[in-house]
Amino acid sequence: MLHRNTTVAASAPSVVLRRNIEHCYPPRVTPSPGVDRSLTLPSGVLRARLHGEAGTPLTIGVPGLSANCFTFGALGPAVAAMGRSMLALDLRGRGRSAPGLPGTHGWAAHARDVLAVADAQGAAQFDYVGHSMGAFVGLALMAIAPQRVRRLVLIDAVGVPDPRAMPPILAAAQRLGAVYPSVDAFLALVKSAGAVPWGDFWEAHYREDLVETEGGVRQRADKDTVVEDLQYAAVTDVRQLWPHVSAPALLVRAAIPFGPGANIITAEDRDAFLRAAKQARAIEVPANHYGVMNHPDTAKAVQEHLT
Questions:
Q1: 106-156: per-residue pLDDT in tens?
Q2: Dist CA 232 CA 107 (whole Å)
């Protein structure tokens, strides 16, 4: 996540090895629940993970900046338990979805991919859950096709983050493209950074994000694509999207910042969003920006909102 008027400390785009050794998990991976689907869209082929029975009321889940669909490993089953289904996506250039051509990414382009996914499922309307950058994609979606979204969930992103919250996000982007000697070496690096509340859930996500390459392993997410999305965010006024939120919306705010004042959603943006989006409400969950995705309070609130 990066926004207009936020200083960019990320390194310049680099050439990324695009040759994938796909469809083999690194050793000792803990599989996420759900079943993989391959979706052919006008923009390319997306990998999605289906939770629940196909043909039931659809929710589409979109993860954060460099994350993959395993971030919905808790919320997907919670939605499925309601007799509904969730398709959690690997956006283009993340997870097992190939990047698009340069210049074809950004929140609005990802939102059009979401609409194409819904079209492919025959869903005239659907629910939407977005985490981090996925929340910004949800806001862009509301500006493009508000009539398609029945209910909206925005998880720990809505406005301009406090600058003190950005270092862990930018650090995740800066890791992309690097080669690490082993799976365990990479996991130890992420764990030692202290931003991710480590456990089986997040270990499964990061193991899924690794692919073998010459010299060790690298992350699947494409650095050039992620940098393109950061650049899009830097010139986009996210607050201008708020008045387009006409669907009933749930804003989930992580109550534990990365440090003093290091909130992804500031209190000021939370309150201003609630004034702008007339059918929105907000809750706070006792977790940080990452931990909110597998906290039971988040799952319960999402279930209540989608009922």
A1: 999 999 999 999 999 999 999 999 999 999 999 999 999 999 999 999 999
A2: 8
Q: What angle do CA 41, 90, 154 make, to 5 degrees?
A: 105
Q: What is the pLDDT of residues 158-195, one digit of tens each?
A: 999 999 999 998 899 899 999 999 999 999 999 999 99
In-domain check, residue 292: yes
Query: Is residue 104 assigned to a domain?
Result: yes
55: region left, alpha or beta (phi > 0 left; psi from -120 to 50 alpha): left
pLDDT at 232 over 70: yes
Main-chain dihedrals φ then ψ at residue 229, nearest 5 degrees: -70, -35
**CA–CA gap between residue 210 and residue 22 (Å, rounded):** 10
Within-domain flag for 79: yes
Q: How far is CA 47 from the centre of its chain?
A: 14
Contact 255, 265 (CB under 8 A): no
Looking at 159-222, list the stretches that DSSP marks H as alpha helix, in order from N- to C-terminal side.
166-174, 183-193, 200-208
- What CATH number should be reported for the domain holding residue 286? 3.40.50.1820
Question: Quick check: is 17 in a domain?
Answer: no
The answer to whether 16 and 223 are in contact (CB under 8 A) is yes
What is residue 306's three-state secondary structure? helix
Read off the pTM: 0.89
Paired tokens of 239? 């607050």
Bridge partners of 261? none
State the Cα–Cα distance between residues 60 and 48, nearest whole angstrom.
9
Strand partners, 85: 58
pLDDT tens-digit profile of 282-298? 999 999 999 999 999 99
- Determine if residue 5 is left, alpha or beta; phi over 0 gives left, psi from -120 to 50 gives alpha, anything else beta: left
Count of domains for the chain: 1
Query: Which residues constitute the domain of residue 243?
Result: 35-306
| The dihedral sign for the CA sequence 127, 133, 135, 136 | negative
Residue count (the chain): 307
